[in-house]
Amino acid sequence: EGPLCEEPVRATKLKILDVSLADKPIHRGGGQIIPAARRTVHSSLLTATPRLMEPVYRLQMQCPGEIVDSIQSVLKKRRGHIVQDRAIPGSVLYSVKGYIPVLDSFGFETDLRTYTQGQAMVHSVFDHWAVVPGDPLDKNIIIHPLEPSPPKALARELLLKTRRRKGLSEDVSINKFFDDAMKSQIQTPEPVQEIPVVDPME
């Protein structure tokens, strides 16, 4: 699991370039290697630009052609969109295909039936994972309770709510993955080596 929400990590490749193992076999067991590897991976992920991902439903809807615009307006309010609408041959109905994030899909069918006066039928199935908009580690974003978050704050809101639900601290800090010696080594700037400049005119 990753360091943000302790959920499985996707689309990540790790390449180990160098490993220093202890001389004694007793210090090379899984109890020593696994926690060290986990700390290394978590700190590497946090120094990159980690993002949260969310599941997305594919929607298959059938409705009369004149209410396709109503479906589009309902989907827009829930971060969804229509990708295809076409007439069904031999029928007055249209087949509409769209996508909606699972997080915003709760109550969608009720809203759809209300807006279309029961003329639209919908079937949803999981389709893919998508990146949640925004930076989950941006501490400048303030989440106000009982207010919808703007799109750029969704990742931060999702991170905080998931960590609260799991009983984790709200602060995702890289410091807990380093011991004091390693932290001071990283924070100490490397000396800059001066390269002499030779004037070609001399």
Automatic annotation (TrEMBL):
In alphabetical order, the GO MF annotations are: GTP binding; GTPase activity; U5 snRNA binding
Which UniProt key words apply to this protein?
Answer: GTP-binding, Nucleotide-binding
Please report the name of this protein according to its UniProt entry.
Elongation factor EFG domain-containing protein
Record has GTP-binding as a keyword: yes
Q: Where is the Elongation factor EFG domain?
A: 51-140
- The main location class comes to plastid
Q: Which organism is it from?
A: Craspedostauros australis
The superkingdom listed in its UniProt entry is Eukaryota
CDD domains the UniProt entry points to: eEF2_C_snRNP
- What Pfam families does this protein map onto? EFG_C (PF00679), EFG_IV (PF03764)
**GO biological process annotation, one example:** mRNA splicing, via spliceosome
> Localized where?
Plastid, Chloroplast
GO cellular component terms attached to this protein's record: chloroplast; cytosol; U2-type catalytic step 2 spliceosome; U4/U6 x U5 tri-snRNP complex
